[in-house]
Each structure stands twice: as structure tokens, then as C-alpha cells.
Amino acid sequence: MTLRQKISDIPLYLQILIGMITGIIIGLIALQVDGGDTFIRHWIQPWGQIFIRLLQLIAIPLVFISLIKGMTGLKDISKFSRIGGKTIGTYICTTVVAILIGLAMGLLVQPGKLVNHEQVAHLQEQFIRAMYPVQLFAFTTSSSAATLPVTLKTVEQKLGISEEVSSFVLPVGVTINMDGTSCYQTIAILFIAQVLGIDLSFSQLCIIVAMTVLSSIGTPGIPGGSYVILAMVLTSVGIPVEGLALILGVDRPLDMLRTAVNVTGDAAVCSIIDR
Prior knowledge:
By secondary structure, the protein is mainly α.
């Protein structure tokens, strides 16, 4: 077996994770060497920028083509309105729920105490076990759009969801369903407001919920796609946009985590629609 074949046998998300860890190690070593930061800036950083640009380049065509494939793959065209309406309605509901959870956490409320976890434990375990490769891939790429092919393959092969449903529901979810991003934005807004000493009224909290729901539909599924949307929501409730500086320094790992939540939400809705 050649080296190339051995590498190809390693799951793609694991290859990316190894590359990320290797990059961190090389970066730490370079910081200890004279001229290392210059080497990274001029010889390493451009390749990372090229990777991000390629993700941005492929995001829209990938989602568009997948959506068209899903629509044309419907055996009964009369199902289009039913599945489409149910899909969009469920995605909006999950987004609102994510926002409310974010507000509750930001206001130091502990939700979910009344949930009977024993009844759904086996379902959760089965779902998470099947979804962990997708979550890791989303974590390492920070792109819901780039993760779409992996998500499609996983829900069809491991969760038993029909291709007719998954090929339509998941591309729509990449576009309009951003549960992790919505939850993050509400917590980030509350954090910035608290640091700046700004008290938010109930009406402002309602505006945050409404604006986050609407803005999550337009958040691009690419790394760092939520910055502009978050700035818009901050402005709508009278919080200085300069407050973004408080979180931008640590946003990269948070972006990776919320992308994993985004794709998990897409798969959860897909499972609901298929039932």
C-alpha cells in the first residue's frame, strides 16, 4: 500500500484536525525563532487565505446545486410544497429556540431541568454517535457549506434518512438554519452590553430575538460569516459596534464550535422531516 493510499484511508475530518494541530505546533516553534513570525506571515499565511477564499468561492455554487438536485430528485412534485413549508417552518422554530436558549444562558437562567433525559437518552446516543464525524469536520473547517457533502452522506448512511428528503432539507438548512450562530450572537450581545454597562430593556431583548432570527437566514455558511450580521444586530439595539473588539480575539475557536452546532441542527431537522 502506497503512502497516498494510507493517507486516503484516514477520514478527511481527521486529516484536517491533524493539520490544524501541526499548524499550532509549527506556529509556537516559529515564535521562538528569530524571523519566524515573518516566515509565517509571508510563506504560511497566504496558503491559509487561499483556503478560505476557495471555501468562499465554492459555498454558493455548492448550496445552489445541492438545492436544485434535491428539488429535481423529488419523485412526486406535489411533495415540494409540503416538504418545503415544513422544512422552513421547522428551521425557523429551531432558530428561535436557539436564540431563547442563548438569552437564558446570558441572563444566568438554567433551562432544561424538567426534561426527562432517560426517555430520550438512547436516541441522543444514536444520533450523536452517527454525527460526530460531521461535527469534527465542521469544527475543523468552520464552514457549514463545506461540510454539506459529509452531512448528506452521514444522515443517509448512518441515520437512514431517505435521499429524497436529505438532498432537499440539508441544502436549505445550510442557508437558513444557524442554531449555533443564533445562540452565540445572543450571548455575545449580552456579554458586550454587560461589559459596557448597558442595561437592555425587555423590548430590546425582543428586538434581539427578532433581528437574530431574520439575520441568521442571511448568514453565509463560511468561516467568520457572522461578523457583519452581529454588527447589524448590535446597532439595532443601540450597542456600540466597537464592542466587537472584545470578542474578535477569541472568536476563531468559537466559530468552529458554533459551526458544529449548526450542522447538528440541520441533521436534527432532517431527521424530524423524514419521520
